[in-house]
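forwarding from the other thread:

> can someone predict this with phosphoric acid mono(formamide)ester?

sure thing
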Amino acid sequence: MLRNKDLLGLREMTADEINLILDTAASMKEIIRRDIKKVPTLRGKSMVTLFYEPSTRTRTSFELAGKYLSADTTSIAVATSSVAKGESLIDTGRTIEAMGTDVIVIRHSAAGAPHLLARNVKSRVVNAGDGMHEHPTQGLLDMFTMREKKGDLANLKVAIIGDIMHSRVARSNIWGLIKFGAEIRIAGPSTLIPAEVEKMGVRVFNSVEEAVKGVDVINVLRVQKERQKKGLLPSMDEYARLYGLNKKRVALAKPDALIMHPGPMNRGIEIDAETYGMSQSVIDEQVTNGVAVRMAILYLLMGGRSNEAVN
Ligand code: CP
């Protein structure tokens, strides 16, 4: 059982809670492989997605996850909602809650916005990405993918490459994987490596080549052009040359090392097309697993108490 009303970050979750979600997601993945992807499990429950930042994968997969479990789902288009008239986050959340919503899934550019909302509504709140802080459901789907392919998260060597500073995906991966005893290596431009990041329990490497040597997983981050300040990033050509993932760099990892990317990709910058297409690339499967993991989260938050069969 999940201890908290809300799912806000992997930092505060226990390994048991994470395992519960990943085990439940394995059952959910079986449902999305069916011809008829629909079970009545969450009939009568409701979910609203409230995204203040763009999204394709996270918002769509939450909506499909809810629909596959028979919950009623709706999506607020923030730009054309009363947010545009100046309505505050708390008032927006209370309005959604007053309509009988069981779960609000929120993405916001401000770190801590989901936590503020969670303190002010009785509805359950799921963090779908808050600023540079956490993206817990991405972290969980990444861990699900690693566990599914590698069998166990303990002792995995995982290299996270790129713009660590602005990456909520990196933070959620680190907070989650560390709890299972994985070794986390990071590499990227020194301007995009946060100060004292070693205190999170990771090892910092000066080059991608050193970081990926002998690893089980290479997780490449998107260059977040929208969050960059001037001078932090070399030119895109230089970034691709020094930090972009290509076949030559992949060859330094274990032969069966997974290639992962949370999406959306800047092809030719952090990863080239050839590497995306390699047999060990699980980038498309991460998207599929995102639906299964979000089904598990909705199920567990809206009444599911254990990894019981979902019919
Ligand atoms: N990985 C991820 O969060 O993608 P979206 O921005 O498309 O949701």
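Residues 55-58, 129, 138, 262-264 surround phosphoric acid mono(formamide)ester (CB under 6 Å). thats all i got for now
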